[in-house]
Design a protein that fits this description.
51% of the residues lie in helices and 4% in strands. It is built from 17 helices and four strands. The longest helix has 20 residues. The C terminus is likely disordered.
Length: 337
């Protein structure tokens, strides 16, 4: 059902979507949004299809996409900002934004993609690669570090090539290896705690209470407590699969609970504050190391999506057209945005 903004009595044109839905539109709003709509106005003047007194112009977008970009062109008093809740709308709306030179709408699409990255990074990565959005693709790749190395299948996986998936998995694996150095060289702990306060990292060290010491790590020649060593070992194993600062923060609650279960007054003293502070330091170190690992954009570079490439080069000539004219334009514009 068409919303009231596109049934307005003062509409002077009908835009018919690719799936046959009519939108009665006020062309003034289109012209104010972008000069690229001049082509639509010209086609309306030449249209031999009339409904009532209004000329009909067919466009390539389906009714969902058409509704979104028309709402974006309309003033907020007549239409609310268009929602971009569905992943399936990202690519076609971005195509329309580029075709009709709607830079603010393209920005809105980018922001919508970024807002979903924390929860669904792989889907966002695939869409960003398909749309030639290198900045968003790199950011989404960073968020995938919170997920296992071998990801679960997502619907958008078919949008990327095997080379692109290989680049992402290689990046993930290299990050997992790079952060393992935090378990072999613990100077980042002693350096960061020295001078902070009198206690420093002594709450980690064994010997001042009856709790068992660990056997793997040494802090300036001193053995840390086993529960702390266990946290470090579990974190380092998890970081192989999920090399993100977020990973080391997740294990804090379990460690605090285990320490409190021992009943050791000394270990339990401010354990939540101590472990939270340490995990945040650990997390920052992880992020610093993974930030030095680059996503191999050179490996990704050869893939240029035909649909978006064609959209960028064909301009307004795609309205209600098809055939050989489009193929010639696909040879232009090989650079990525």
């Amino acid at each position: 059902m068409i919303a009231s903004p596109f049934l307005h009595a003062k509409a002077d044109i009908i835009l018919r979507s690719s799936d046959g839905v009519d939108f009665r539109v006020i062309t003034l709003f289109l012209n104010l949004a972008s000069s690229s709509f001049d082509t639509i106005i010209e086609q309306a003047a030449q249209s031999d299809q009339i409904e009532g007194d209004l000329p009909i112009v067919r466009v390539e977008e389906n009714h969902r996409v058409l509704d979104i970009w028309l709402r974006f062109c309309y003033p907020s008093t007549l239409a609310e900002d268009p929602p971009l809740h569905e992943f399936e709308d990202i690519i076609p709306v971005l195509e329309a934004a580029r075709k009709y030179s709607l830079k603010p709408l393209e920005h809105k699409v980018r922001q919508a993609l970024k807002s979903r990255m924390e929860k669904e990074p792989l889907r966002c990565f695939a869409l960003a690669m398909r749309a030639q959005l290198n900045i968003e693709a790199t950011l989404a790749a960073e968020y995938t570090l919170r997920e296992p190395l071998i990801p679960a299948r997502v619907p958008e996986i078919d949008l990327i090539t095997a080379k692109e998936l290989l680049a992402l998995l290689t990046y993930h694996q290299r990050c997992g290896k790079s952060v393992q150095s935090l378990g072999t060289d613990l100077s980042w702990i002693t350096t960061n705690y020295d001078g902070l306060n009198v206690i420093g990292y002594q709450w980690i060290i064994s010997g001042s209470c009856g709790c068992e010491s660990g056997s793997r790590f040494l802090l300036n020649g001193q053995r840390p407590l086993k529960w702390w060593s266990d946290y470090m070992e579990k974190s380092l194993v998890s970081l192989y699969d999920k090399p993100s600062g977020h990973t080391v923060l997740v294990g804090v609650a379990d460690t605090v609970r285990d320490v409190r279960a021992t009943g050791c007054l000394q270990c339990c003293s401010n354990i939540l504050g101590n472990m939270t502070g340490f995990a945040e330091l650990f997390s920052r170190q992880v992020e610093m190391l993974t930030a030095k690992v680059d996503l191999d954009m050179e490996l990704l570079k050869p893939f240029i999506p035909v649909t978006l490439q064609g959209t960028a080069t064909r301009g307004m000539g795609t309205i209600a057209t098809g055939g050989r004219g489009e193929k010639k334009n696909l040879k232009r514009g090989r650079s990525r945005k």
